[in-house]
């Protein structure tokens, strides 16, 4: 498994464990919470608000049926393992001659686990421990274990094909058995358990939304908003901010210089420009050292302007804490798929390739 995918999986697990387990129980408090609402809606009428009904649950009624038993640990729900509890809720009691309705049409697997979590949260510890002891619940996989287990075979063939390329994210789409895999700025859809890969944008024809572009933009927004204002060189607008523009820039690129010469017009129009460093050619590229000098300067805005006007003689030699941002900008720029500078992004993650004159840019950003 390539190491990036490993970390993705490891991280998924860590995140889940950190909010899992109330005491030593298999469910999370979130599951209990969402289960409470589902229980009230679907179960409480028969089993009671707190899963306490019916006190005389061992007594058949006039028709020879058992009343709904308490699920709060006082009856014998705890004699059933988790799978049987799930099946009872899913299929109801009809097949066994009982009265409990089936819920498979109304609750999905997650919902069923939540209602079970809710009524198990009413179980006293000693009952829960007995149940857990009987069925060794600690070995039950968590939901995220299952997701990971399902993901692995889905991406296996793809990983073999792409060799060392890093897979950034794998997620299920709303379409049956179709998975979306993110590799940098590209998306691939896997079909039939990962046997087939489809490359292209997924569009919902009912709504007209390009779902791939939505995913791409939201990943760009996440990557860019991870830079704090303190990390960047920001040219504030005159007056109120009407739009924000993120610009990957290299001081040595002529079109970056041209864009910068129009920064006054952008500021006057209410546009806030956030500069991110992107040394074309990486650490050996022409702008690398200068960008570091700019990022380390006392007055970064002035240094940016000086550098863009090829007056970088006075910039102090650069190595300060902030100069690491230059390397980070380069990495993130590559990740969001830029191929040159300037690369512009609107606040909703839409990419504008290359230089645009301010007369075009301003109406586009304000629309
Ligand atoms: C219409 C009434 C009714 C509703 C609604 C209902 N149940 Fe039941 N449930 C029963 C009855 C009656 C039984 C006893 C077995 C039978 O008759 O099927 C039962 C049995 C069970 C059992 C087995 C308990 C044991 O001790 O073996 C579980 C677990 C359970 N219900 C969970 C639920 C959950 C969770 C919901 C909501 C999603 C729910 N039930 C909704 C009537 C209901």
List key phrases describing it.
Cytochrome Bc1 Complex, Chain D, domain 2, 367 residues, binds heme C, alpha+beta, Nuclear Transport Factor 2, Chain: A, 5-stranded mixed beta sheet, Glutaredoxin
Could you give the topology of this structure?
Layout (H helix, E strand, L loop, with lengths): L2 H17 L9 H14 L1 H4 L34 H10 L17 H12 L4 H11 L7 H20 L6 E4 L5 E6 L2 E6 L4 E4 L11 H15 L7 E3 L7 E7 L4 H8 L1 H6 L2 E7 L10 H9 L3 H9 L15 H12 L7 E4 L4 E3 L4 H9 L1
Parallel strand pairs: 6-7
Antiparallel strand pairs: 1-2, 2-3, 3-4, 5-7, 6-8, 8-9
Helix pairs in contact: 2-5, 4-5, 11-12
Bound molecules: heme C.
Heme C binds next to helix 3 and helix 4.
How would you explain this protein's 3D organization?
The chain has 367 residues and is an alpha+beta fold. It folds into 3 domains: 1-13 and 142-200, Disulphide bond isomerase, DsbC/G, N-terminal (Nuclear Transport Factor 2, Chain: A); 21-139, Cytochrome Bc1 Complex, Chain D, domain 2; 224-366, Glutaredoxin. It is built from 14 helices and 9 strands. A 5-stranded mixed beta sheet has the order 5-7-6-8-9. The protein has a 4-stranded antiparallel beta sheet with strand order 1-2-3-4, with helices on one face. A hairpin with a 2-residue loop joins strand 2 (178-183) and strand 3 (186-191). The longest helix has 20 residues, at 143-162. It is elongated and about 95 Å long. Bound molecules: heme C. Heme C binds at residues 42-43, 45-47, 66, 68-69, 71, 75-77, 80, 85, 88-89, 93, 98-101, 103, 115. Residues 42-43, 45-47, 66, 68-69, 71, 75-77, 80, 85, 88-89, 93, 98-101, 103, 115 line the site of heme C.
């Amino acid at each position: 498994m390539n190491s990036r995918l490993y970390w993705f999986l490891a991280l998924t697990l860590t995140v889940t464990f950190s909010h899992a387990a109330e005491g030593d129980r298999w469910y999370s408090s979130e599951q209990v919470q969402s289960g409470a609402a589902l229980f009230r809606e679907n179960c409480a009428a028969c089993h009671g608000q707190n899963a306490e009904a019916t006190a005389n649950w061992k007594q058949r009624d006039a028709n020879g049926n058992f009343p709904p038993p308490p699920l709060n640990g006082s009856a014998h729900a705890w004699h059933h393992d988790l799978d049987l509890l799930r099946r009872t809720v899913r299929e109801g009691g009809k097949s066994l001659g009982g009265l409990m309705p089936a819920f498979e049409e109304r609750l999905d697997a997650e919902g069923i686990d939540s209602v079970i979590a809710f009524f198990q949260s009413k179980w006293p510890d000693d009952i829960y421990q007995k149940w857990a002891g009987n069925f060794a619940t600690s070995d039950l996989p968590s939901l995220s274990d299952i997701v990971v287990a399902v993901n692995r075979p889905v991406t296996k063939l793809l990983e073999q094909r792409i060799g060392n390329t890093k897979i950034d994210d794998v997620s299920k789409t709303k379409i049956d058995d179709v998975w979306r895999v993110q590799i940098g700025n590209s998306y691939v859809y896997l079909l039939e358990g990962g046997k087939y890969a489809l490359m292209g944008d997924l569009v919902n024809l009912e709504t007209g939304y390009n779902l791939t572009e939505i995913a791409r933009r939201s990943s760009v927004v996440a990557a860019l908003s991870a830079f704090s204002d303190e990390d960047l060189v920001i040219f504030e607008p005159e007056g109120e901010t009407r739009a924000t523009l993120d610009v990957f820039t290299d001081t040595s690129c002529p079109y970056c210089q041209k864009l910068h010469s129009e920064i006054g017009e952008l500021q006057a129009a209410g546009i806030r420009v956030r500069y991110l460093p992107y040394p074309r050619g990486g650490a050996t590229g022409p702008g690398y050292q200068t960008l570091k000098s700019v990022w380390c300067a006392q007055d970064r805005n002035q240094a940016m302007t000086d550098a863009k006007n090829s007056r970088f003689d006075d910039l102090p030699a650069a190595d300060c804490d902030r100069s690491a941002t230059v390397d980070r900008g380069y990495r993130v720029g590559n990740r969001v798929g830029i191929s040159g500078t300037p690369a512009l992004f609107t606040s909703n993650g839409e990419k504008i390739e290359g230089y645009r004159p301010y007369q075009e840019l301003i109406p586009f950003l304000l629309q």
